[in-house]
Amino acid sequence: MKKPLVKTARFVISNTDVKKCPNDGKPEYAFIGRSNVGKSSLINMLTGRSKLAMTSATPGKTLLINHFVVNDEWYLVDLPGYGYSKRSKTQNEQLERIISSYILDREAMTLLFVLIDSRHEPQKIDLEFFQWLGENGVPFSIIFTKADKLTKSVLASNIASYKKRLLEDWEELPPVFVTSSETALGRDEILQYINDINDTL
Ligand code: GTP
Ligand code: MG
Known about the structure:
Distance between the termini: 25 Å
Number of domains: 1
Structural class: alpha/beta
Strand content: 15-25%
Order of helices and strands: EEHEEHEHEHEH
Number of strands: 7
CATH architecture: 3-Layer(aba) Sandwich
Bound molecules: guanosine-5'-triphosphate, magnesium ion
CATH topology: Rossmann fold
């Protein structure tokens, strides 16, 4: 029988300051993307705990760096979203500082998952974010979210054209996953991917 990849999952701590994040050396996997793209919902879907991370239909729900520990072995990290236009400039700048200091300074961050809403054409803000990750040598993968909201054929064509757009800027693409927090599409693939990386550490 296959062993379950998530045996336990629990909330550990919320922070605005990367220096106060857990310091026990466990590897961690963080989720970033535009506000409302589905970061918190994906963490709940992966862990099978529908209320672990707080979600909301209104963008801008997550405002802190949130650590969840899985199997007492590794962390999932829920980050605030970027690019929510209805926030004040000051609050957006403050959140950007939190996000960038986490991404650039967090040694325990093994991999960053960048979430993209599968319904939309490539957006400038996300393309610029990928550029910034590249310039800073941050390892990342891409997760397309909300696949349940599209037909199979539209989904496939959106993802193909998104990849084509990325290949204008990049020589090769990182691993790409397609998910739905409603149907749990992509769950096993992402957990297996994390598990495989953990095995190499
Ligand atoms: P912020 O914390 O505000 O940055 O947002 P977030 O990226 O954490 O998004 P969140 O998980 O709170 O989800 C935003 C909205 O999208 C909620 O109403 C979710 O129910 C919905 N949602 C998220 N993922 C999916 C999905 O895969 N399918 C569908 N149909 N809805 C989704
Ligand atoms: Mg959130």
